[in-house]
Amino acid sequence: MKTLIVYASKNGASAEACEMLRERLSSFSEVDVCDVHSSLPSPDGYDVLVVGGSIRMNKLSRALKKYISANAKTISSMPSAAFICCGLTDDFDDYVTTEIPRSAKFSLGVHCFGGQLKPERAKGLDKPIIFMMRQSILTQDPDKSDGERRELPELFPDTIYALAEKIKQTRRV
Ligand SMILES: Cc1cc2nc3c(=O)[nH]c(=O)nc-3n(C[C@H](O)[C@H](O)[C@H](O)COP(=O)(O)O)c2cc1C
Predict the structure, then answer these.
(1) Which of 173, 170, 171, 168 is nearest to 24 (CA)?
(2) What would the pLDDT profile of 113-164 be if each residue is shown by its tens digit?
(3) Considering its fold, how many domains does the chain have in total?
(4) Which of 40, 52, 139, 140 has the highest count of CB atoms within 10 angstroms of its CB?
């Protein structure tokens, strides 16, 4: 089988998540991992499509949203999944609602792959922004209840590997 993964990543977290997914899939599928800004193959030649990327200023990459909208019909008619990487993982549901084009139906679901806030991996203005986001999480009011407290984000290997398993189940026997 053949799987296409199309991603948008600014500081490497989504790209790293895609590599983790590729590694899991490669035991049973050919896998092409493509940056949304590169020249992209048509999803028609693939059995499974995965698309995703990171949230910046509450937004998913415009190029990725454009790709999803342009391929909504194909996405909705084949096994497909979307993922989001974000620093504020508690806000994942809001990002799904506002940022994933509704015209595309993902039969294998929309998943939170976690995120990273690593200033050392960021360039330019991203560095201080990531630093500030980290600081706001690390310096939360100690009186906040557990339910209100945010944690520093990490990638979610379990979610990534669970999607790989779901993709495995789509193989024709
Ligand atoms: C400029 C900037 C803006 C960001 N805005 C948000 C945001 O609105 N919500 C959020 O949850 N995370 C936000 N983040 C955190 C990123 O989503 C997180 O670092 C993610 O792992 C980045 O993935 P990437 O390296 O693949 O781009 C922001 C990060 C940067 C650098």
Answers:
(1) 168
(2) 999 999 999 999 999 999 999 999 999 888 888 888 889 999 999 999 999 9
(3) 2
(4) 52
